[in-house]
Each structure stands twice: as structure tokens, then as C-alpha cells.
């Protein structure tokens, strides 16, 4: 039974049509009418979702501790505490080793979704039930109807969306552990989607499902180039992945053009499913197309190249909010600033959240409208503006504000309660209310609590970075040097981007030899080895993050940094070295004091 089905059972007949799964995807206007109704009735929808979650999960060990099997929503609000992953983790661990899903949910946990970020060094795994796929599909089904309102003719061509799966594993009890997108692309909801004019992708499913991201990227670009005149939309889920693919194209266009010229797929693509799926694209040699592409890629500038390679493209879609905003300038470079950049949705492993109802606005102005049928949403007000509460801080139950009661202009941290067993769980995202659509608030994504470094889907917090640096600096100490100070910076001027650490090092005895490059390289790899699973996967498997760099700065560089930041308004008494550099001036200052730079000599260890 889908969520849609569940909602059908309530007395309010106005919800009935939201529930009819068969309608989804085919009747585009209906989707928008449904959205209208859902947002007008947001309060009722949220109350209903909470009631359904409580009815479904009241017998779970977790909920009955606080609710004594009641399904009363007031009891929930009074008794159930606001929690972070530390509280959820022991339950996930028990399910991983074979205990019944009923300890947290009334439905079977069918997969654990590996979210980015860690809790005390452990990767976070979010429980999911089969019905969650219906919810995700529902959100996806709204995206094209929304776009169609603003851009015409989208049904007359194809989308080159560069989509990738990640490696997955099984728990001891046999539950798949995978990323939420991998779960979706492998699901029947995606693979058996009803084909219509609006989900006509250039990439065959077999190529999207190829576990080798380089081979997948090569084939997906090849399909997009072959179909270049038909491509109306370009995109990827995250801007980082889109740009990495364009940089891959910059490196490999000769091979791609050659394949098109001779009508034969490069032998480096060894994946059998990919080779089979690509046969149709390269059935005959196509020297005319090869000549056109060679002219564009080999003889013209790369600034604005996307519009020349895909002359009919109407927009580029990717997440460009939050940490992805760092990629806007690069995307504007390749698009020549003339192709709209569109952010359509906001989602996570815990739950999908919302959609952008004004998709053609500038990426910096994007607000997401929360869909009140995805989960039960509550908000922790961040009273003094952007001061972000930390994980340890206990948040009183009475502090929480419900979805329809948030106030325009205010900042909040997002809390979700889901069907799959998260109750009043702090997602960690900080949002600002920018307005309302009917009764539903619209939020600007401000930041993810604690995350200081992110290049792709990796999200490194201050504690993880500190622990990694602390481990690596022992290598220095063994060789008569100490690390006096450090900070970091996500360098996205390279593709892929990479983490930069600025280190001020002091020797602890007279006559110590100058820093040996091997020593610093060992420090680089040591930091990487102790960063989390997703970081190491991005580095070693996805190749979406480049080797970590340590830039050694001269003595006194961090004092100069303090002087600068104090001159910019930091309090001298409370000054703490920022563990990540945000201001352009601070970065310029540190870069001007660099005496040497070192990179990781190899990939960090990573196993599925
Ligand atoms: P994960 O659970 O690893 O998929 O990561 C989900 C997190 O990614 C969210 O909680 C946000 O912090 C971030 N995120 C997802 N979508 C967006 C978006 N559209 N804009 C900004 N951040 C996003």
C-alpha cells in the first residue's frame, strides 16, 4: 500500500485524488491540482501524516517507550524527545544484525540508506520501508509539471541527465545498504517508469546502472553527443557531478569523437551491459557529426561550450544551493551565462522534502516549498539568528514549531518524523522561511549544521577534520615538528575539487632538517585515511574529489589571519581559529604565506 493509498482512507474526500497512484505521471495538470490541494490543506495533511505514522508504528519498541501505545498526537508532542543520530544508531545497529524492524517501525525496513556525514566517526544509516519509494516518486512526478509551466516544448526532445549509482553492500542480516539515489535508480519505480515525452533520457538505464562511474560517464556523454540536436535539458543531481562530467568531456572528447566517427565503442568500456546498450547509438560511422564535434571541442573556446554542443538546450538542472553554490561560477563559464540554471528539489536520505516552484529564479534566490505529505515536519527556532545549536544541546519538546506555524524571515533547524522509524530526528539543515505557498512555508537552504568541507556528496564536519588532523600530526611529532595551527578550504578551482589544509609547522629542536616532502605526503594520506566512508569513496571510487593538499605556511601566518579577522569584526577575546576559511581576503592572506605544498600520493583505502 502506498502513502497515497493510506491517505485515501481518511474521511476528507478532498485528499482522495492525491492518492491515486495511477494518475501520477500521466495527467500532468492533475499533479499541479493535487499540489494545490496539498498545500492549501497543509495543516490537515500534516496532522494526518502524524496520525498515520503513530497508528502504523505505535507498537514499535521505540515509540511505545514514550507513548505507551497511544496514537494521540498531543501525547507525541509532549512525550517524544528531539534526537540526533546517536540515539537512533543503536536501533539501526540492532536491525543490521538481524533484529526485527518492529523495534522502530510497523513496516519492514527493506534497506538502509547511507547518508553523507557521520556521527562520532560512524556513517549514518537511515531506515527505509518499501513505501518510501512511492513518496520519492511522488515528488519526482511533480518536477516536470512545474517546469512545463515555465518552459514550453519540453516534450519535443530529450534530457541528457548524467545519473550514477554508487557501490552498495549488505548488513549481516542481508539488508542492502546503499545511497538513496542508488536505491531509486535500481527500483521498479524508475526502471519501469511509464515512458512519456517528459522522461525521455539520452542515457539508457543499463548505462546509468553501470557500477563503474568512469565507463558510465563515458557512455552517457557519448549518448548525449550523438543526440545533441534533440537534447533540450542537461543536468545531474548535483552540480559537482555535472561539472565533473564536463571536465571528463574536456579530457576525453577526442576518444568520444573517434567512436562516433568510426561507429565503434572504445575498447576501454568493458562493461557488457553498457556495450550492449550502446550498440544502437553507434550503429553506423558518422563522420559528419564527428567533424562538427571536433570543430567545437578542438578549435573553439570552452567558455560557453554547452550551448554550442547542445544548441537546443533550454536549461541545466542540478542542485546549486547549499555547498553546491560554490560551483555556480564554473557552470556559468561552461554555459556562457546564457542557459538558465535550475534547482528543482530538496531531499535527503531521511526523507524527501520539497520542490522549487519558481524554477527559473537565480540559484541564489531558490526557495523550496515543503511537501506536507512526505513526512511530519517540525522546526527548532534558532533564536539568535544564525546561531546553530550543536548536537549535544537538548532541545525541549515545547520548543518545536509545526510546519504551518513557522514565521517568515526566521531561521530554523529541520526535524522530521517518518514512517520508517525516525521520530523527531534532527536532520541538521538550517533553513530560512522566505514566504508561503498557500499554507506551506517556503525555505531557503542556509547550511548544514557543522559541515565545513564539501566537494561532492562528502560532508566533513569540524570534529571529523580535527580527529583526522590530530592523527596525522603525530607523524610530524615523531620527526621533531609540531603543528601549531591549521585551517582548511574546499578548493573547487580544480576539477575535481579537493580539500586544502593550511598548516603552520614549527620545529622542536635546533638544526632540524627542512621538511621532507615524503613526511608531508604521509600526513596528507593519513588525514584522508581517517576521513569518513563517503569522503574515501569519493576519492578512491567515484573520483569526484581530488588528492588532499597540505599548504605549509610561514611562521606567523595564523597571527596575521587573526589580525585580519579581528579587523573584520571578530571579537579578540573569543577569537578561535576558524577551521575552514570562508572569506576571500583570509584565503588570499594565507595563500600569500605558503612556502610549500604537498599532495596525497595515492588514494585512501576504501572498501565497499
Ligand atoms: P544525504 O542524506 O547524504 O543525501 O544528504 C542530504 C543533505 O544534502 C540534506 O540534508 C542537505 O543538507 C543537502 N541537500 C540536499 N538537497 C539539497 C538542496 N537542494 N540544496 C542544498 N542542500 C541540499
From TrEMBL:
One Gene Ontology cellular component term attached to this UniProt record is: cytoplasm
Q: Name one GO molecular function term.
A: acid-amino acid ligase activity
Q: Give the source's domain of life in one word.
A: Eukaryota
So where does this one cross the membrane? none
This protein's UniProt keywords: Ligase
- Family annotation (InterPro entries): GH3, GH3_C, GH3_M
Q: Does the keyword Oxidoreductase apply?
A: no
Q: Which residues form the GH3 middle domain?
A: 368-448
Keyword Calcium listed: no
Which Pfam family is one of this chain's hits? GH3
Domain (GH3 C-terminal): residue spans on this chain: 463-583
The UniProt similarity line reads: Belongs to the IAA-amido conjugating enzyme family.
Protein name, please?
Indole-3-acetic acid-amido synthetase GH3.9
